[in-house]
Design goal:
alpha+beta, binds protoporphyrin IX containing FE, 5-stranded mixed β-sheet, 11% strand, 15 helices, Cytochrome p450
């Protein structure tokens, strides 16, 4: 009997054969392990993303939601409440506003490359990707760097779920509470001393004279730190993995760095770090002969939609000339990733520098150990050897 277990280490290692079975044979599937329906075809997921009145985020968008988070953050509210929160942050995330992070991002990767360039091997995730992400987020939010490691470790821990019990452990919940507490202190401090940074703008902002609720501010800041650190660092690891596994593609980028943005889009399609998110049905839905009931949770597998042959011919082939404009690596609809532009700018700069200094490398471990998460998929470390 077919099963789909988003918690299994085997799914982390390679979810794509299971996604194919889901798309071809069980396009609307009840997963006992997840306790929710699973949608895997591109068209079905896009339909869900553009119908938030039916596929609601208000009960949370994380497959394993944190207590108290649903209904209070961007990702876990529906319009009009969602739009109000989103508008406040979006204005600070425009391309022009992000131009000033270019040089700090370049400075960060150059500094960390100095530390690894004399070595024969290094860990891309922990020596480069995650450090650059932390530098960038701390710069953007103007956060004090004295406990950067602790912030990063808690961001990574809070997105995890225990693969055996399929639940968050006390350590995962503690990490969430630690981050919420950290965000609360940050918010209080920034209220007293507002600056020009993204957080200050958000905290002091008003829409039609109405201020955000303290809980909204605190949990949205918590989510921004988590989403920023885990998603960006995770994707940098996935992109580096593709560069190791597809040396011909990498050599094209080394010869012509202007191809990096296209390769990045293909990696977001081919193996986005943000694999699965949740919605909750507001009414009964009939789909592919199944009846999903109002109140049921539905998992949207973006990672599967991006490999749907009905949408992307030769979907299992990594092809940096593909230009997959409509991939769902950043989700879609009203909840599409708010950090997409920042992520695109950061990845481009980081890989321009990285591939200039270290153009040739191979992967040292065939088997990787993956962050245990029902939403995200990224390696815990990625050892690369210079060749
Ligand atoms: C390559 C890196 C990234 C990937 C792959 C990614 C992916 C995603 C995806 C798939 C969603 C949709 C979630 C849903 O459907 O419920 C999302 C939402 C979001 N992302 Fe990202 N993300 C990345 C980087 C970032 C960064 C750097 C930030 C912030 C600094 C960020 C902030 C957010 C926020 C706030 C939302 C919620 C938007 C809303 O609900 O309106 N992301 N992201």
């Amino acid at each position: 009997m077919f099963r789909f277990d988003p918690y299994s280490p085997a799914t982390d290692a390679d979810p794509f054969p299971a996604y194919k079975s889901l798309r071809d044979e069980y396009p609307c599937f009840w997963s006992e392990e997840a306790g929710m329906w699973v949608l895997s075809r591109y068209d079905d997921i896009l339909h869900a993303l553009t119908n938030w009145k039916v596929y609601s985020s208000a009960k949370g968008n994380l497959v394993d939601e944190f207590p108290g988070r649903a209904g209070a953050t961007l990702g876990s509210t529906d319009p009009p409440r969602h739009d109000r929160l989103r508008a406040l942050i979006q204005s600070a995330m425009t391309k022009r506003a992000l131009d000033h992070v270019l040089e700090p991002a370049r400075g960060s990767i150059r500094t960390h490359l100095e530390e690894v360039k004399g070595r024969d091997s290094f860990d891309f995730v922990n020596d480069l990707g995650s450090r650059c992400t932390v530098d960038l987020l701390f710069y953007l939010f103007n956060m004090p760097k004295d406990n950067a490691e602790e912030v990063r470790d808690n961001a990574v821990l809070m997105v995890q779920t225990d693969p055996v019990t399929r639940q968050k452990t006390q350590a995962h919940l503690d990490a969430f509470h630690w981050m919420a507490n950290y965000a609360e202190n940050l918010v209080q401090e920034r209220k007293k001393n507002p600056g020009e940074d993204l957080l200050s703008n958000f905290i002091t902002a008003e829409i039609n004279g109405e201020k955000l609720l303290d809980k909204e501010v605190q949990l949205t800041v918590t989510t921004l730190i988590m989403a920023g650190i885990e998603s960006l660092s995770g994707f940098l690891g996935m992109f580096a993995l593709n560069m190791a596994d597809f040396p011909e593609a990498r050599r094209q980028l080394v010869a012509d760095p202007s191809k990096i943005p296209l390769a990045m889009e293909e990696s977001l399609r081919f193996n986005t770090s943000a694999q699965r998110f949740k919605r909750t049905l507001q009414q009964d839905v009939e789909l592919h002969g199944q009846t999903m009931k109002a109140g049921d949770a539905v998992m949207l597998c973006y990672g599967s939609a991006n490999r749907d042959e009905r949408m992307f011919p030769d979907a299992d082939t990594y092809d940096i000339t593909r230009n997959p404009k409509r991939h769902l690596g950043f989700g879609g609809g009203v909840h599409s990733c708010l950090g997409a532009m920042l992520a695109r700018v950061a990845v481009q700069v980081i890989f321009e520098e990285f591939l200039t200094v270290i153009p040739e490398f191979t992967r040292m471990d065939r088997e990787l150990s993956w962050v245990p998460s029902s939403n995200f998929r990224s390696p815990q470390s990625l050892m690369l050897a210079r060749t």
